Amino acid sequence: MNLYGHKVNQLGRYFSKALNEGITEHGIYSSQWVVALYIHMNGECTQSELADYLYVEAPTITRTLSRMEKAGFIEKRIGTDKREKIINLTEKAMEAYPKWEAVSDSLENKAIEGIDRAELEIFEKVVAKMMCNLKGDI
Questions:
Q1: Upper half-sphere CA count for residue 107 (Cβ side, 13 Å)
Q2: In whole angstroms, how large is the CA radius of gyration of the chain?
Q3: CA distance 129 to 132
Q4: DSSP characters over 117-137
Q5: CB-side exposure of 48: number of CA atoms within 13 Å?
Q6: Which CATH number fits domain 4-135: 1.10.10.10, 3.90.1300.10, 2.20.25.90, 3.40.1490.10?
Q7: Residue-wise pLDDT tens digits, 47-100
Q8: Which InterPro entries does the protein's record reference (predicted)?
């Protein structure tokens, strides 16, 4: 029996739990952090782009974005099509971003302690291949 999927899922759960424990004191949850990270790295985007990137259904991303909007971390505006929503980080989010990033970076550094660069490169390749293999099934 292969348990690779289970192990990947468990790693994700450990990481999300630990990230939430550190990042919630800064007013955000791990599910919101990945949204902020994506927008920070890529610039404004549509709600659909976020849902596609995160592989979540529309209602899930809508709830996450609504919470972020209420907290003052994102702004929504109508795109070229009335149904399209453009999402951007607010000034408040940009000011808080370095704190969020520091928590995430610290956790990642803890997670990779004792793992050399060559092993991490293999890990990155394996994860990328697994994601590519599954994209057709998602």
A1: 19
A2: 17
A3: 5
A4: HHHHHHHHHHHHHHHHHHHTT
A5: 6
A6: 1.10.10.10
A7: 999 999 999 999 999 999 999 999 999 999 998 888 889 999 999 999 999 999
A8: ArsR-like_HTH, HTH_MarR-typ, WH-like_DNA-bd_sf, WH_DNA-bd_sf
SS3 92: helix
Q: Can you give the residue ranges of every domain in the chain?
A: 4-135
Hey, what long-range contacts does 33-41 have (CB within 8 A, 24 or more apart)? 33/100, 33/104, 35/61, 35/64, 35/65, 35/68, 35/74, 35/87, 36/68, 36/73, 36/89, 36/93, 36/97, 36/100, 37/101, 37/104, 39/74, 39/87, 39/88, 39/89, 40/89, 40/97
**What is each CA distance from 21 to 17, 35, 41, 78, 135, in whole angstroms?**
6, 18, 23, 34, 30
